[in-house]
Amino acid sequence: SQQGEEDPQALSIQEGENATMNCSYKTSINNLQWYRQNSGRGLVHLILIRSNEREKHSGRLRVTLDTSKKSSSLLITASRAADTASYFCATDLPGSSNTGKLIFGQGTTLQVKP
Amino acid sequence: KAGVTQTPRYLIKTRGQQVTLSCSPISGHRSVSWYQQTPGQGLQFLFEYFSETQRNKGNFPGRFSGRQFSNSRSEMNVSTLELGDSALYLCASSSGLAGGPGNEQFFGPGTRLTVL
User: What residues in A contact B9, CB-CB < 8 Å?
Assistant: First the structure.
């Protein structure tokens, strides 16, 4: 079963607006990552946040992590048409931390209209 | 550094056939993981190889197998193909070192497999 559940499933905004996507997971984690996928192609790593971190920034991206609620959010500020993509959260599981075994959420499809 | 490469990019097979997909990781990466992506099930972990040994395995039937060579290149094989095996198969590589800074995965463009 999926570890991560993402909300919303789809999001449509205007260029310049902010986009927020949420991810919830079920078990304890070592770290949580966010990936972007453009139209059925490979995934691109965006940001990794460790379980002992609460917030992390990278350019226009801001990620928060609340381990007590088992949830994370990804905020994209001042969105651009090029941000149109699907966004996935991914977690590792105890026993397979720092390995290639990630559990992905179902993803949020973001459309940014010019 | 060159990115992760996967071959072939597209493949059409018929039920009952078998298929082999190839993945070349980023130079220096020792971990290669495989994922299956379908509209219904999303991204599902197949298995991971590290230094030629399978380190992790997902919940897929034995028809799905893989291996890793001494140069870290990896192949996955699916035997007795079923219609439900139609998917995008993604390969990812990382340093794979336990206790490292994190397990950021670098993905290839994928192989689109269609089973008729």
Answer: none
